[in-house]
């Protein structure tokens, strides 16, 4: 886990990149009904704006309350690192899925012009995204990003501000 703000920012950049790219591919695949090169191309084209939006939401809206909730109700500073990682990850995924599902609904409405469909698109996207995002975060993205992060930045190599 990151030890201070600078490490948190670098870690968040890496985690957000991984999650947004994967979830973009997943959502475009759901929309197109097939995973192929065209699907990945479509996901990649929409990725930059979604990534910036997700980073801003993660850093400025979700991270503080999610960590606060996790450490107030689920774990304490003496808990094992794995328990803390799982608690914080779960507390981050829930609001990010809600926010990014809304983003996806807005994106769909911009393309179709059917703004009256936004609530139903948003509400149907939430469970579809949650069943992919939580396991992907806990089983794939979390371990992968933690490994890459600590390999690239061993403890103590990023100076605290």
UniProtKB/TrEMBL annotation:
Transmembrane segment boundaries: 9-25, 45-64, 85-106, 126-145
Keyword presence, Calcium: no
Pfam families linked to this entry: DUF2798
Keyword Transmembrane helix: yes
This protein's UniProt keywords: Membrane, Transmembrane, Transmembrane helix
Top-rank taxon: Bacteria
Protein name, per record: DUF2798 domain-containing protein
Organism: Dorea ammoniilytica
């Amino acid at each position: 886990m990151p030890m201070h703000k600078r490490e948190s920012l670098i870690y968040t950049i890496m985690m957000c990149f991984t999650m947004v790219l994967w979830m973009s591919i997943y959502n475009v695949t759901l929309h197109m009904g097939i995973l192929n090169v065209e699907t990945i191309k479509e996901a990649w084209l929409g990725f930059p704006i979604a990534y910036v939006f997700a980073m801003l939401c993660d850093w400025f809206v979700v991270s503080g309350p999610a960590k606060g909730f996790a450490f107030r109700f689920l774990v304490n500073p003496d808990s094992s690192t794995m328990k803390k990682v799982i608690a914080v990850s779960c507390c981050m995924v829930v609001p990010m899925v809600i926010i990014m599902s809304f983003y996806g609904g807005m994106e769909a409405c911009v393309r179709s012009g059917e703004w009256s469909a936004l609530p139903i698109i948003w509400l149907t996207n939430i469970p579809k995204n949650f069943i992919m995002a939580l396991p992907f975060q806990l089983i794939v993205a979390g371990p992968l990003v933690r490994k890459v992060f600590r390999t690239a930045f061993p403890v103590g190599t990023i100076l605290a501000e």
